[in-house]
Design brief:
The complex is a heterotrimer. Helices cover 36% and strands 24% of the residues of chain A. By secondary structure, chain A is an alpha+beta fold. In chain B, helix 2 (89-114) packs antiparallel against helix 5 and helix 4 (155-187) packs antiparallel against helix 5 (197-222). Chain B has helices at residues 45-74, 89-114, 117-147, 155-187, 197-222. The chains are: A alpha+beta, B mainly alpha, C mainly alpha. The structure holds heme-A (HEA) (2 copies), dinuclear copper ion (CUA) and copper (II) ion (CU).
């Protein structure tokens, strides 16, 4: 409840988003309460049986100007408050020496690391507290890279490369669904992002990326296929 | 009977807007103090409607042309290598043919105003003939391009070319049909100097289809 | 001049009374009121279909991969269990049907046809034959759309937005002719709505009764006029888009396929350039309807008539420059995203003006809680919730998280159901007496309204919660995701509420058909309203009025005006003052 049902946030820029979310929550919540309380009050007070004389009026210019200008001001302020977070997240991608290539396809995430041609299916391993850049591509249709706890979402568009980034502050294993309808397997197209501590990440790299020419695909694909088969009798 | 309900308008009854009564000196019922009087239509219904049809068609072609331009700007080389070039000379002449038909159309409307039915019919026929000539030449060019290997499915180049030009050709075809209807109406005396709306609307649409062509021609053939 | 017109019960003279055969009266009718009724029946029929599809979707979400009751006979191979591709088809067609074949026919098609000539004092539309073609084109588009359910490969399954290249290449969805039919049907539908809109615009500009100045038009006519202009300019963009999509699928062109040099985002630009004006096409008539009904039952002039008209014009202008807010995370240039945030925020201002003016209309009135009024009040309040959730998405950073989640689904339904459908219900109850000459049953009306209002909120409000929790839209089975499993109880709750919402429509169906045949005969002006349609007989005959058309002397909302003895002063009532016209 306290978090207004938002999933836990673990990325650095997630706070910017959550802060705005709560601000808009407050603005719209207060607006809604004002509107509904006023409306309920009017409905009760001015109901037909109450025997009040009707106020014959066509409007009130001052009032109308006020209720045009005040929401306009609130919305302009909101726009200005939104801009920095947007430019931080999407417009100024910070530099980093870790850039991962993610190629989406029906219905998997394919992950490759620099300096290795090994393809990981539906799993990504990244270090904690480090800026990770993601180069996002798609092989067939539009998919969408979504990690709820990172507050990150970006469509992967065939024929384009889109650069994204995130920085996670808490190690763990985070679900990584596809958020854009991409066909019958859209539901269930998901992977896991494993966020390791610095040491664990080094270990993982040593075990998985160092050996060049390792088998190109992991066996991870199989159970998923079976799932699909089950759904499609 | 509920006669109290309806206040008879001061002037004549409007019958479904077809024969508008003459305008009142005050400009009808839309002035502030004057009594409500019959209103005078802005312009004949048919012409007004044609204007809106043209607005809608403009949006349709804007969709196509902008899509084409986006693909074209996005492509590395245009036209793509190993694809036939589009014929410039022949289509330039063809453009002039179409423009000429518009000029003939203007004169047909003028003849209508002068009440010269024979001239109206002749000039409408002329405009239609030029339009048909345009379509025929276009057809030949298409056939030639297809023989040179430019097809709808040969990438964005062929796709955009045939969709755009085809959509325009379809509209010329439709305008020709409309023109034929207007010709028949004029021949039967259903369109004349007092009731010019049907022909004027047709002329508006014709001019639109003609004016569209140079835009498409410049963006597809020239640029 | 006597002002006892409300109780006048007689029949006005029938002008030009000529007998038309059955076919010409009921089927190929050129009478705008019959065409309006035809649009209404089309919309209501499709609403049952679209609603049942929604319930199928809901069943799957609450109890994934269990047999949907009643589908055993249709999905024989799976004995009623949905497959993922069938699920995708269900929500795609749910939205397509609801938007194009329910709301547009009812709000723009039916009430546009019914209200514009009657409220302006015209005998019919400017082009009655075109009008007839318009309903039959739309109806054929509907039939074609329905045929898609029966072709091999199933109906379109790429979402109502049909993003390319998913929709552009048959093998990506497995849908072959379904998607083609979707394109063809919408193409035809576009032509039909163009015919209708041309008629509306021409009629409003050219065919108003004497004295009906632009700024004496009822606001619902304003809204329909603006809607028609939006339709006229927006539908052709969709038409061009679906034509290209169809060519990509059938002729092998490559507008949207990157493999041939096409551009997938181009489809999104075209679709939303149409799509955003489209959502205002869905809401503007409902706004007009609310502006019409609130003054009648608050017995008070509308607050800020000019502001109401101009804010609708403002919405119409702005709706062209906000469409990019659907594409914040689509890969479009992020700087553009920022620009679209600005415009999206601005477009909330005219809506704010309207909301507060509606409240102002209630202020100091004498409010009667009739069934149309209740539905109109529901419209206002639910539109506010839906609009306010739009503010979350307008803020680009927040939209990163909530885009493509159930938060959006909640927004959609608060504006289209809470807004447009409540508006449609309000309009049906309000104009039913004039349209069919009989009153609806108020008890059944209340039995319909209250459960609908309650279950509507119980269905769609929790969608905000699961959306904020991260549940994506268009997923077949939320239980496949670990982070969603803890909120599955909400999905069950929503589905149960949705089923109740469906059942709550039964009193409406009963009321509608019962009143049609056995309702109390409607008086001329049952609500004591001011606008011109109430001066015509109920139901109005062909050509609407007797020998003379009404003349308009004042604005449409003169309730409780000091100069009249009654609490309403119809537009057609000649003023009693020196120099008044002689009769
Ligand atoms: C009738 C239809 C309708 C209407 C009227 C609206 C109105 C609005 N919509 Fe909505 N929208 C849809 C139908 C509609 N929408 C649909 C169908 C989709 C999903 C499409 C899809 O992807 O399938 C969508 C999606 C959608 C998105 C994209 C979300 C995404 O996919 O990520 C956005 C983003 O900005 C948005 C914003 C808005 C805004 C700001 C308004 C504004 O116009 C709302 C303005 C109203 C108010 C704000 C309330 C009243 C005002 C006050 C009480 C004043 C005070 C207010 C303040 C001070 C804040 N809408
Ligand atoms: C335009 C109007 C409109 C309307 C009215 C509705 C009405 C409803 N919608 Fe829909 N919906 C959309 C437009 C609309 N929707 C759109 C645009 C989308 C996005 C699609 C996409 O992603 O592409 C969507 C998507 C959508 C989803 C998300 C699917 C997904 O993303 O996976 C869901 C899920 O709950 C849903 C549910 C419902 C429900 C329960 C109703 C209910 O309100 C329906 C209630 C009505 C009835 C049940 C019909 C009345 C029945 C009778 C009169 C007969 C008697 C009934 C019984 C015997 C039961 N809708
Ligand atoms: Cu990939 Cu949805
Ligand atoms: Cu929008």
């Amino acid at each position: 409840m306290l978090n207004w049902w938002l999933p836990e946030n673990v990325s650095t820029y997630g706070n910017d988003i959550d802060w705005l979310f709560h601000l808009i929550y407050a603005i719209t919540g207060i607006t809604a309460i004002l509107v509904f309380v006023t409306m309920a009050f009017f409905l009760v007070k001015y109901r037909a049986g109450a025997g009040r004389p009707v106020k014959y009026t066509h409007g009130n210019t001052t009032l109308e100007i006020v209720w045009t200008v005040v929401p306009a001001l609130i919305l302009v302020v909101l726009t200005f408050l939104s801009a920095p977070a947007w430019s931080r997240i999407k417009m100024n991608i910070p530099a980093s020496d870790l850039e991962i290539l993610v190629t989406a396809k029906q219905f998997n995430w394919q992950v490759t690391y620099p300096g290795s041609d090994k393809v990981f299916l539906d799993e990504m391993h990244v270090p904690v507290n480090k800026i990770v850049r993601v180069r996002l591509k798609s092989q067939d249709v539009i998919h969408s890279f979504f990690v709820p706890q990172f507050r990150m979402k970006q469509d992967a568009v065939p024929g384009r490369e889109i650069l994204q980034w995130f920085e996670v502050v808490k190690p763990g294993r985070y679900e990584w669904p596809c958020a854009e309808l991409c066909g019958f397997g859209h539901s269930g197209m998901r992977g896991w992002v494993h966020v390791h501590t610095a040491d664990d990440y080094k270990k993982w790299v040593a075990e998985n990326l160092a050996a060049a020419g390792a088998p190109a695909e992991e066996k991870k694909d199989e159970p998923k296929k079976n799932e699909k088969e089950k759904a499609k009798p | 009977m509920s006669p109290t309900l309806l206040e008879a308008p001061p002037a004549g009854v409007r019958a479904n807007g077809r024969t508008p009564p003459p305008a009142r000196p005050t400009g009808g019922g839309d002035d502030h103090e004057g009594e409500p009087g019959p209103r005078r239509p802005v312009m004949a219904n048919a012409q007004l409607a044609t204007m809106f049809v043209i607005a809608a068609e403009t949006m349709f072609f804007a969709g196509l042309i902008f899509s084409f331009l986006i693909l074209r700007v996005g492509a590395a080389v245009w036209p793509p290598p190993l694809q036939p070039r589009l014929p410039l000379g022949m289509t330039a002449v063809n453009t002039l043919v179409l423009l000429a038909s518009s000029a003939v159309m203007v004169r047909a409307v003028r003849a209508l105003g002068a009440g010269d039915r024979a001239a109206v019919l002749a000039r409408l026929g002329g405009a239609a003939g030029l339009g048909a000539l345009f379509l025929t030449v276009q057809g030949f060019e298409w056939a030639r391009l297809i023989r040179f290997g430019l097809t709808v499915s040969s990438g964005a180049y062929g796709a955009t070319f045939y969709t755009l030009i085809g959509a325009h050709a379809a509209h010329v075809g439709f305008a020709l049909t409309w023109l034929a209807v207007a010709w028949i109406l004029a021949a039967r005396g259903r369109v004349d100097a007092r009731q010019p709306a049907a022909l004027k609307a047709c002329a508006m649409y014709w001019h639109f289809v003609v004016a569209l062509w140079p835009v498409i021609w410049v963006s597809v053939y020239l640029v | 001049m006597s002002s006892t017109t409300a109780t006048a019960h007689g029949h006005a003279t029938h002008a030009g009374h000529h007998e038309l055969g059955f076919v010409q009266t009921y089927i190929f009718s050129r009478d705008h009121k019959m065409i309006a009724r035809q649009f209404l029946f089309l919309g209501l029929f499709m609403m049952i279909l679209g609603g049942l599809l929604a319930l199928v979707v809901r069943w799957q979400l609450a109890w994934p991969e269990t047999a949907v009751p009643g589908l055993g006979g249709i999905l024989k191979e799976t004995s009623g269990i949905l497959e993922p591709s069938t699920y995708n088809m269900a929500f795609t067609m749910h939205a397509t049907i609801m938007i194009f074949f329910v709301i547009m026919p009812i709000l723009a098609g039916c009430f546009g046809n019914f209200c514009i000539p009657l409220m302006l004092g015209a005998r019919d539309m400017a082009f009655p034959v075109l009008n007839m073609l318009s309903i039959w084109t739309t109806a054929s588009a509907g039939v074609i759309m329905l045929v898609g359910f029966f072709v091999p490969g199933g109906h379109a399954a790429a979402g109502w937005t049909s993003y390319a290249p998913l929709s552009a290449v048959p093998s990506y969805t497995g849908t072959n002719w379904g998607q083609n039919i979707w394109c063809i049907s919408l193409f035809i539908m576009g032509i039909g709505s163009m015919m209708g809109s041309i008629n509306y615009v021409t009629t409003v500009i050219n065919m108003r009764a004497p004295g009906m100045k632009l700024f004496r038009m009822p606001l619902v006519v304003w809204s329909l006029f603006i809607t028609a202009i939006l339709l006229l300019l927006a539908m052709p963009v969709l038409t061009s888009g679906v034509a290209m999509l169809l060519f990509d699928r059938t002729l092998g062109t490559s507008w949207f396929r990157p493999s041939g040099g096409g551009e997938p985002l181009l489809w999104q630009h075209l679709f939303w350039y149409f799509g955003h004006p489209e959502v205002y096409i869905l809401i503007l008539p409902a706004m007009g309807i609310a502006s019409e009904i609130l003054p009648v039952f608050a017995r008070k002039p509308i607050f800020g008539y000019h502001a109401m008209a101009f804010s609708m014009i403002g919405i119409a202008f702005l709706s062209w420059i906000v469409y990019g807010h659907h594409m914040f995370v689509s890969g479009m240039n992020p700087a553009l995203g920022m620009a679209f945030t600005v415009t999206t925020m601005i477009i909330a201002v005219p809506s704010a003006i309207k909301t507060f003016n509606w409240l102002g209309t209630l202020w100091g009135g004498s409010i009667r809680f009739t069934v149309p009024m209740l539905n109109a009040l529901a419209f206002v309040s639910m539109f506010v919730i839906g609009g306010l959730s739009g503010i979350f998405m307008a803020s680009t950073p927040v939209d990163i998280f909530i885009q493509d989640t159930y938060f959006i689904v909640a927004h959609i339904h608060y504006v289209v159901f809470g807004g447009s459908i409540f508006g449609a219900f309000a309009a049906i109850y309000y104009w039913f007496p004039k349209m069919f000459g009989r009153m609806t049953n108020p008890l059944l009306g209340h039995l319909h309204f209250w459960p609908t209002f309650v279950f509507f909120n119980l269905t769609f409000f929790p969608m905000h919660i699961i959306g904020v929790g991260g549940q994506m839209r268009r997923i077949y089975n939320p239980m496949q995701y670990e982070f969603l499993q803890h909120q599955q109880h909400w999905n069950v709750f929503i589905t149960v509420s949705a089923l109740c919402l469906g059942v709550a429509q039964i009193p409406f169906v009963i009321n509608f058909f019962w009143s049609l045949f056995a309702g109390q005969k409607a008086p001329l002006n049952p609500w004591n309203a001011n606008t011109l349609e109430w001066s015509a007989p109920s139901p109005p005959p062909h050509l609407n009025w007797g020998a003379t058309l009404p003349t308009v002397y004042r604005g449409p909302y003169e309730y409780n005006a000091p100069e009249s003895r009654e609490d309403f002063l119809p537009q057609w009532q000649a003023p009693v003052r020196a120099g008044a016209p002689r009769h």
